[in-house]
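General statements about sequence and structure are easier to judge against a single worked case. No coordinates are needed to read the tokens, only the vocabulary itself. The sequence in question and its structure tokens are set out directly beneath this paragraph.
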Amino acid sequence: MKIVVVTGMSGAGKSTALDVFEDLGYYCIDNMPPELLGSFTELIRNSAPKTEKICFAVDVRSGGLFSRFRECVLALRESGVDVTVVFVDCDDGVLINRYKETRRRHPLEMEASGNLMRAIEMERKETEGARTLADFYLDSSHTSIGKFRERLKGIFSENNGELLIDIISFGYMYGIPKDADLVFDVRCFSNPYYIPELRLKTGLDSEVYDYVFSFEDSKETYKRIKDLVEYLIPLYSKEKPRLVIAFGCTGGKHRSVSFARRLSEDFSKDGKKVRVEHRCVEI
């Protein structure tokens, strides 16, 4: 039996994640109190026909019971159950905008005397233990619902234990991806933005890509980064099922996209399981 527990910040995408797991064939239950994880798992384990894949959403909606999240998950693991914890997070500013757009109330807003920012701060403190327990940390701050779904499906689709490599391009003006394991800053290279005919294009266009790699410094840096990552991949594969590599430039449209594109193409040719995401090209 395989169990996934989805938790994290309210408004970050837990409901979307639950939909994805349902599409992947999981039996999904929302708003599960942590203390019922063990007994419910045992109930399903002894039922017929057996359900092999279960996904629980557990968060602060369970009130004071959530304080036992870490204890209950660890107890489940100690009993021999295969439990994976997914923590979904998002920047505070983006969460505030999402709540304003949907006009929904944060689960802790009443406790925070109607102050949304205070409610988010309270939730961060309450979920800290769950975050440190997570096997997968997903940041949805600057990711569309479609991209978020694709990322989650890519992680949990059957991959025979092979390390999944996520390669991301981003813009520093929008913040560093929180889920990145390795971050490479490529702002030191000549910026195509200042060339009029390239400004409105991206690293997905051959003109920009060729310009970025027309310099020896870019070529040499890319080679060294690729060599480093190839050295690290076997080490990461011993500890985790997913490696997130991020390339950043100022706006996330030219240099970072070119580097992410090249590494993803080279790794794909080598037979590695790779997914690429360009987070800022449409911003």
User: Anything to note?
Assistant: The CA atoms of residues 94 and 141 lie 6 Å apart.
